[in-house]
Amino acid sequence: MSLAKPAMRGLLGKRLRFHLPIAFALSVVAAAAFKYGVTEPRKQAYADFYKQYDATKEFNNMREAGIFESVRPTGK
Amino acid sequence: MVVRVLNLNQMLRLTAGRVGCLLSRRAVVGMTNSGARMSSHSHHEVSDQVDMSQPMYWDRLDTPLPDRAWIDVLDSKDKSLKQKEKGPWTALSKEEKIALYRLKFNHTYPEMKKPSHEWKTVIGGMFIFFGITGLVVFWQGHYVYPPQPHTFGEEWQAKQIQRMLDMRVNPIEGFSAKWDYKNKQWK
């Protein structure tokens, strides 16, 4: 029973050569997924909201609802 | 500095002398008699306490070679086998090699790794304590807790939600974004 001599050197190097490209690729994938899954939709949502935003109209709606203390609803 | 790595059996036997209580000693005797063949020690102590100044034997997966062999005190048959071991090993038969292994070691690696039924005790004990805790929590909810604040009521919660919508809380991506202001309903 004669077994082959096991690898005695270069074990860390071998591991790094295998795992580092994978780690790098997965990190890039994670960053891209976050960018295109979260930040871009969020930027778009904000842009869409403010495209049709009328600040005065919203203010008057809020005033009529009675949430302000400095300005009472019209008619009081 | 030399560090003694002890398994549970050794630690229990060590503390048995210190604690000296009947329960631990009975448990210690039970554990030390569990092996099919006891290792023959040259010393017999009154209090069944391990002498930590002597080389110890252990069965551990991560430390394969203990400080001493399993069988210390050899009878004449073992002694002659040990003599034969000093010669060329090709002269040893398979049974002799196995006998030499069993002199040196108590359990083989597969025997050490043999799975036990301990997990059932652990999981069972966990669930028992979960159940007891659940009963305690239920009793507590009934007998200990004061009445809930009035702000938890249905009416108050409805008024709260209406006020949040009036204030346009998080109108872009959050709370008010999900409310349809034209049709006065959730989107």
Tell me roughly what share of residues is in helical segments of chain B: 40-55%
What order do the helices and strands of chain A follow? HH
Percent helix of chain A, as a range, is 55-70%
Tally the helices of chain B: what do you get?
A: 7
Strand content of chain B: under 5%
Tally of helical segments of chain A = 2
Give the chain pair forming the largest contact, with residue counts. Answer: A-B, 10 and 8 residues
Principal-axes shape call of chain A: rod-shaped
Distance between the termini of chain A: 101 Å
Largest sheet of chain B: 2 strands, antiparallel
**Residue runs with pLDDT of under 50 for 5 or more positions of chain A:** none
N-to-C order of helices and strands of chain B: HHHHHHHEE
User: Total strand count of chain B, please?
Assistant: 2
Low-confidence runs of chain B: 16-38
Alpha carbon gyration radius of chain A = 30 Å
User: Please, what is the average pLDDT of chain B?
Assistant: 83
Structural class of chain B: mainly alpha
Radius of gyration of chain B from CA coordinates: 34 Å
Multimerization state: heterodimer
Protein name (chain A): Cytochrome c oxidase subunit 6C
Keywords (chain A): Membrane, Mitochondrion, Mitochondrion inner membrane, Transmembrane, Transmembrane helix
Pfam families (chain A): COX6C
InterPro entries (chain A): Cytochrome_c_oxidase_VIc, Cytochrome_c_oxidase_VIc/VIIs, Cytochrome_c_oxidase_VIc_sf
